[in-house]
Design a protein that fits this description.
198 residues; 2 strands; two-stranded antiparallel ribbon; Serine Threonine Protein Phosphatase 5, Tetratricopeptide repeat; single chain; 10 helices
């Protein structure tokens, strides 16, 4: 009995140590502490480590110096398309917060623009939700569309790009998306918003 108690105690201590190690790197990533992140990686730390089911790149999108942290993690072997068991894809988190520079970074690194989370939402859907109106975010929206983001995907709850645009008041764009989805089985590769005259 005492022997089993020691084994359980040792096991619990190892798990706590492991959890604390990952909680530290999560804090470094969130705070944009580049020197601590480099130290973690140079000591053999996993750039794709999961903290509470979320990859480090995902956590980077919630914190400071998103691109700086992401570049360091990518250079160490992080996968831009890794979402872990919770399907916490970093691009979706960047889109959820409307971080246009981070979205552009993920597009340039070949992230899967049509990855879906557990609710069936895509990056372009989160981007629409986060911006509330696409008029001032036209270049990022167009970049996602021309790079291959699907306009016609339907989430698990029945929500779609079109429905989200109608709800946000972007009537003209919603009509264009409706027309596109009615006439094509895949997303267009050309911008559907018109450039505003200077």
């Amino acid at each position: 009995m005492i022997r089993n108690a020691k084994l359980v105690s040792t096991l619990c201590l190892s798990l706590l140590t492991c959890a604390c190690q990952y909680q530290d790197i999560a804090r470094y990533v969130h705070q944009g502490d580049l020197s601590s992140i480099r130290r973690y990686l140079s000591s053999g730390g996993d750039p794709n480590a999961l903290v509470d089911g979320q990859p480090l790149l995902y956590i980077a999108m919630t914190g400071r110096d998103k691109i700086g942290v992401a570049e360091i993690l990518l250079a160490a072997g992080a996968d831009v398309n890794f979402g872990g068991k919770t399907m916490s894809f970093p691009l979706l988190e960047a889109a959820n917060w409307g971080h246009t520079d981070a979205i552009e970074w993920f597009v340039s690194k070949g992230a899967d623009l049509n990855s879906i989370d557990g609710d069936g939402y895509t990056a372009i859907m989160y981007f629409i939700f986060s911006t509330h109106s696409l008029t001032k975010f036209q270049p990022t929206f167009n970049r996602l569309v021309t790079a291959g983001a699907s306009l016609c995907h339907v989430a698990n709850d029945g929500n779609s790009v079109s429905k989200m645009l109608w709800a946000s008041g972007d009537k003209e764009l919603a009509i264009r998306v409706d027309d596109t989805c009615a006439s094509e089985s895949t997303a267009p590769r050309t911008p559907i918003l018109q450039s505003e005259a200077p």
